[in-house]
């Protein structure tokens, strides 16, 4: 009897060990199928500058875009979803070249227009220009791409940084009509003015919770240092009352809010932003230790979000939300609704 008990105990023990090993192997296999969205993807990318015609120079393009563009795309043959990315206030689209190439390397065509060179507080013209660019995509984008690279205009995302985030939300809220439908909206540290009650026209925030009537998934990315002053002479670059917290509070489901704790408003830009404007990007806003981790995080979380809501592949986004995937920055608690 004692021998039987010993053999039975040994069998049960062996079964538990084997089951645990099998579960570990299954978990490892599932993890290994996830893409490292925070690293450069498998596609080689091409960065393309497109100018429009002027009053003195006629464009040679069959259907020129309404505004100059910076396009990042895969070089390999295929059909790719599109992301329109809007720059921040008084910034150049070229300052986002490393970010958009990161996104493009995961199989997306990224369109970054230069909406203006100089602008006042009113962003109405930027909203109209973005609508015009969106309407142009189905008519003119294919003329700019080689025949083996096909844009899928039915899988379209819209993103904006800083004031560009406000413009993106305004367009998604149908403040200007578009012929194409967006399926995903991303606000990257969006800003709607100087303070609550000091919004720039046209105001987007209503301060009514969940009031944004958006027929699409939304992701808001914020920065912990955006609301902190760089020095006493300048206001914070993403002030409380008009920043990412307020935009997310007005979102309906499905929506997610990611906040990089120790990084600033401009830390997603290229490592080297040239010229006078490029130099000021290091002086005006409170920054983190370096730009590379924040830029990798923004690029990766945008890829994960676009994969989920444009391509139906949510494994990376779920892994990030559940803390099962290592991210390049420390995040505040992630909040998702829906």
| Topology as a string of helices (H) and strands (E) | HEEEHEHEHEEHEHHHE
The CATH architecture is: 3-Layer(aba) Sandwich
Read across the widest sheet, the strand sequence of neighbours is 1-2-4-3-5-6-7-8-9
CATH superfamily: Alpha/Beta hydrolase fold, catalytic domain
Termini separation: 57 Å
For this structure, the CATH topology is: Rossmann fold
Largest sheet: 9 strands, mixed
What's the number of extended β-strand segments? 9
Tell me, briefly, the overall form. globular
Strand content: 15-25%
Q: What structural category arises from helix and sheet content?
A: alpha/beta
Over all CA atoms, what is the radius of gyration? 23 Å
Low-confidence stretches: 1-32
Q: Note the total helix count.
A: 8
Rounded mean pLDDT is: 90
Pathway: Porphyrin-containing compound metabolism; chlorophyll degradation
Main location: cytoplasm
Pfam family, one: Chlorophyllase
Protein name: chlorophyllase
Give your account of this protein's structure.
There is one protein chain. The chain has 338 residues and is an alpha/beta fold. The chain is 32% helix and 18% strand. It has one domain (46-337): Rossmann fold (3-Layer(aba) Sandwich). It contains 8 helices and 9 strands. Strands 1-2-4-3-5-6-7-8-9 form a 9-stranded mixed beta sheet, with helices on both faces. It is globular and about 50 Å long. The N and C termini lie far apart (57 Å). Mean pLDDT is 90; it is low at 1-32.
């Amino acid at each position: 009897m004692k021998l039987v008990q010993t053999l039975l105990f040994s069998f049960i023990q062996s079964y538990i060990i084997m089951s645990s090993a099998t579960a570990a192997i299954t978990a490892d296999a599932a993890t290994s199928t996830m893409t490292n969205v925070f690293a450069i993807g498998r596609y080689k990318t091409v960065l393309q500058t497109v100018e429009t015609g002027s009053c003195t120079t006629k464009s040679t393009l069959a259907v020129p875009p309404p505004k100059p563009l910076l396009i990042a795309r895969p070089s390999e043959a295929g059909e790719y979803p599109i992301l329109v990315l809007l720059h921040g206030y008084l910034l150049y689209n070229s300052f986002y070249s490393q970010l958009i190439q990161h996104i493009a390397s995961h199989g997306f065509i990224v369109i970054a227009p230069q909406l203006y060179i100089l602008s006042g507080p009113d962003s109405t013209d930027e909203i109209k220009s973005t609508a015009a660019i969106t309407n142009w995509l189905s008519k003119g984008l294919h003329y700019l791409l080689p025949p083996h690279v096909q844009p899928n205009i039915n899988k379209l995302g819209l993103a904006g940084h800083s004031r560009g985030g406000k413009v993106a939300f305004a367009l998604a809220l149908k403040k200007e009509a578009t012929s194409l439908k967006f399926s995903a909206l991303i606000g990257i540290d969006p800003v709607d003015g100087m303070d609550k009650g000091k919004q720039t026209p046209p105001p987007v925030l209503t301060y009514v919770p969940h009031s944004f009537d958006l027929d699409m998934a939304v992701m808001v990315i914020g920065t912990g240092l955006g609301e902190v002053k760089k020095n006493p002479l300048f206001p914070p670059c993403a002030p409380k009352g008009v920043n990412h917290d307020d935009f997310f509070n007005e979102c309906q489901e499905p929506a997610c809010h990611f906040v990089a704790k120790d990084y600033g408003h401009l830390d997603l830009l290229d490592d080297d932003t040239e010229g006078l404007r490029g130099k000021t990007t290091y002086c005006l806003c409170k920054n983190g230790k370096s730009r590379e981790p924040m830029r990798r995080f923004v690029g990766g979380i945008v890829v994960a979000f676009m994969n989920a809501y444009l391509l139906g592949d949510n494994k990376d986004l779920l892994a990030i939300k559940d803390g099962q995937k290592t991210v390049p920055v420390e995040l505040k608690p992630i909040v998702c609704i829906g």
